[in-house]
Amino acid sequence: MSSIVSYRRGAKTLAPSGGGGDNRGMKLSKIFPILCAAAAVTLAPAFGGSADGGAVHASYCRTMPVEISKTAPLRGRQDFGETRIDASVEGNPLRIAGTTFARGIGTHATSMIPLDVPPEGSFGGGMRAARLLGACGIDDEAGGRGDGAEFRVLSGTEVLWSSGVMRPGEPAKRFSVKIPRHAEKIYLLTLAGGDDVCDHADWADLKWETRLFGRLGDGGDRLDARAFGLVPGTGKDQTAALRKALNAARDRRARELVLEKGEYHFFRENALELSFHISNHDQPAIHPVQIPLVDLRNLKIRGNGSTFVFHGQSLAVLFMDCENVTLEGVRLDYARPMYSEAKILGFENGKTIVSVDEKAFPYTIENGRLRFIGEGWTRGVGSAIAFRAGSKNIVERTADIVFGGEAEKRADGTLALAKDFSEVGAGAAVGDTLTLRSWDRPHPACVIYRAKNTELRDVSIHSSFGMTLLAQRSENVRFVGSGKAEDKTAGVFPRPETGRVYSASADATHFSNVAGVVTVENAFFETMMDDAINVHSTCLGVEAVPAKNRLRCRFMHGQAVGFEVFMPGDTLRFIKGPTLEQGPEVKVAAVRKLSSRELLVTLAEDVPAGYGPGDAVENADFQCAVVFRGNVVRNNRARGALFTTPKKVVVENNVFRDVAGSAILLAGDAQGWYESGPCEDVVIRGNRFIDNLTSVFQFTEALISIYPEVRKLGEQKRFYHRNVVIEDNDFDTFDVPLLFAISTENLRFMNNRVRYNANHAGWGRRPFRFLRCRDVEIRGNVVAPAGTATPLPQSWTPADCDATLTENLKIGD
To answer: Tell me, what DSSP letter sits at residue 176?
Structure first.
């Protein structure tokens, strides 16, 4: 190991080298950091710098091996196999073009692995990591097969170094990458060549080059986006300029980045390519990120009412590995949304005649089927949703309309769709809009991942290539408006100037394995293809118990894989698969990620007796409390709000109007999506429910549906949900069930006002249905039958309830 002290001013250099084998040399080497720290402060003015850390004035350099955290593979992603430390992806010594490396990371492209930059002071004497050194290449175990891979070193906001495509047999390529100031993460990305066959990629001989720097100040700057080239109204790509501003915000520890109000455009071609898993979505190898709010702290981006328009299939905004970051005052939209729309002109001979705005929704017809064209993508049709003209209500009793896009173009430019939509449900009519959709979910519009204390304030999202906002493995998220929901400062709805009918391609907001508190307040949600909010824990299936304190677990749904369900130190809770009953809690000692779908989990104690294959496990620490207050939810498919969490849930002062399915669903399962978390403290009060449940979707048995999926209900010894209070709400509804519940204990429906109408065809069912519930109380409610203006006290009787296996049912005052 060598040590060098250098002082530079222009071309002048004083570089005494040290080492020495006697005691004097050893003592001198120990005091060099102290001397240099003093010199950095004392000599700064003389060398044209400042003592606040704005420049490097003196450096005491040495290299230290990168101590790769055992959790790095758990936080990473790769296409095939297991990420290994100090071994190749197949477990052999790291070997590139005949050279063997003792240390490094063996992976398989495409992959991305985060490295934790050691914090200031980790090396003693004011030393910190200044550069990352290493080598990379294709491992010899690939046997000359495959078409190579590209290696990239990234900060949270830019590519710091790229190898270009490296082929099998090429010598390892060395790199030396400067670490940005205040960076706490570096990301190692490998990109597959033409395919991902035998792309065995090695990162080898990784070292930190450490130097002595002046103290890194706290900054506190307020940055003007214009200073970095961000200019509204040009229509030009602002991606590079915004990333430059974000780099400066990290470098200076800025508190605010302020944009001039206007319209800004961001293009897929210049997006930052990142690779990571996103829950409840397709799993593409790459997510092109337009605005990476990654590895940032204590920053607010103020848009002042600006509109961000994104071009191409991409992820618009990513909050990752960040803390106390706020996005405020922006509208997010895509120039070309994922789904397309057609306006109904008439019906002829079993076909529906429609017009499609080819400028907004360009298309072609291939083999008799519609294929829509976007900016760098094409997509077919798998189903349709019919919206009423004017009201935007989903046409009654239609739900998801099966339609494969069969169509022919007529001489007048209109399209004849090979399905009569007037015969579906209540019947689509002339003037109605069909949203023609697929079931793809490539990227959400906005993702929050490994982030703490994230806020979106006065942010509206108008379209997406999946869910609009998804948070996973994060803590404390706020999505709020500063005014009333009707002001539309926050939420998910079509941007008025586009003329579109639909907004989100899936859920508006979705929270998987989030800790702390999720707050959604004063937001407006309209015409989404799924729920306004969905909160749950992702549980894993238990495949085997290979040792008395180990579990082999599996991500059971193909769209929910790979992200950190368990980390060492987390609390694992067992779930009996057939009955959904909660079991013991045990601390996690270690986790090995065998692939994107399988984990080997070592526990701090033995696996409890009676648990094994067929059961499930969830993270008891990453479950959140929820405040859903003051929102408007209307004209969307599926459900209004879905909650599956044991922490306190408050659903208060919202309006649910013309939701096609249930307004509220309390769910839970360990057999389909594997979305778990029994509700144990739910308050639903002060809300208004207006004409919901006009169609039937999964689990939508009543306006408020409590529907855990229990395979063997009769074997349950403990109820799944408990302590649910539904009070002081207004129901303006046609004849549909009010409340449905399975496996729920201590359920109250009290002091609500129900006004029936004849706006839609009634179901002719009882208002209440309970299946294996206990301690159910219905009292203090008032009801106005259809055609009656004034609600009257209602003493429902047992005849108004369909109750099976239910104990202690109390009805009336």
So the answer is: E
